[in-house]
Amino acid sequence: MNPSEAAFPASWQAGAQLFAAGHWWEAHEAWEPEWLAATGERRCALQALILLAAALHKRWRMGSLTERNFAKAQVYLRGLPPGVFGVDWARLEQEVAACLRSDAPVPFGLPLLPVWLDGRPSASALPRSDE
Q1: Which class would CATH give 8-125?
Q2: Is the pLDDT at 127 greater than 80, yes or no?
Q3: N or C: which end of the chain has fewer CB within 10 A?
């Protein structure tokens, strides 16, 4: 992993903030232009994030119990090296899966994306106290 892949790209922040607020469709839209131009691991990571956002949107905004988008995202998630772009991809996958199967929307503060506000990480970017 080269140094530019160690941190969550600044150009992905708008989508991460929308995702953290439960605005999954808008997060998808924010990431799409970057995804269209991306290659390699950047494209793979963005594809995974877009599909996760679509899965959460369909589950909690449209009432769909299908997990087709989540299954597609898993293919991309599992192709990403651990920690690339500053994200624990396996943990994100596990927590989105739990959220999709829950009876209540976003039961535990999704997402686990490094969202930075005012030069400091937000609560969603920090390790949870139960670890």
Answers
A1: mainly alpha
A2: no
A3: C
